[in-house]
Design a protein that fits this description.
42% of the residues lie in helices and 10% in strands. With 253 residues, it is of the alpha+beta class.
Length: 253
Amino acid sequence: MDAQPIAYVFTVRGRPVGYRPSYFGGELVATERGYFPVSSTGYRSLAGDLGFEHYVSAAAVPEGLLSSLATEADKERQATLVRVARKLPAGPDRLANFIGASMDAEKAINDGFFAPDADRAALWQSGYRRLCLIDGDPRFRPEPNDRVWTPEFCADAIEKVRTLLAFVQQLASGDFPAQPPPRAAVLHSYFDLPPKPAGEPVTVLPAVTSELSLGSTEEYLRDDEEEMECFQRRAAGHFPDQGPDQGMQMRLF
């Protein structure tokens, strides 16, 4: 079934949030690149909030719903920031180490696309550390252990990590291509939106040295105590002032 066109654009925290009626209620979608307050993916179904009525109008969206969705997205993003900023000690199971580190990296990088600029930088920095850990420390690389994780499969998994690592370095420089590499596990929907006229912000990635790769996980992922305290404070609900919420301002698209 073809998607309906965007019918209205709400303003949430000064950012556009498109509303598209759907067969199951309605959905919120990003209309441009950058911060999308109500979801880390640029998309949020309202079926669970509006019920499964067909093609609900934007006027039926309850007052305060968009504000609560933005607060919920804040909490989820801050929880991710805290998790991926933590030290990641190497366990005895290399496959488990790899899966944990790679999942953290992909989550941090993908959540960064539609995050506020400051949170994007923090997420990409942490995701980059995880990718460098996999690339530089053999304890975080998978080893063949069954019919699925064959030598070829393990090598391919590492190659995908290195593709993503190189792509994050490119993104951090502000150089966003028309589409990401096919093998990069990133949020393609961001690239389907028009590029920002002024370009993307530059993210300063942390310096990582290969000599730390053997037996120095604690040094490699050394946390800045003040940064971690800030993350934990924000995750507990103490967010920077976002200004008055304009969640229910609406205009015809």
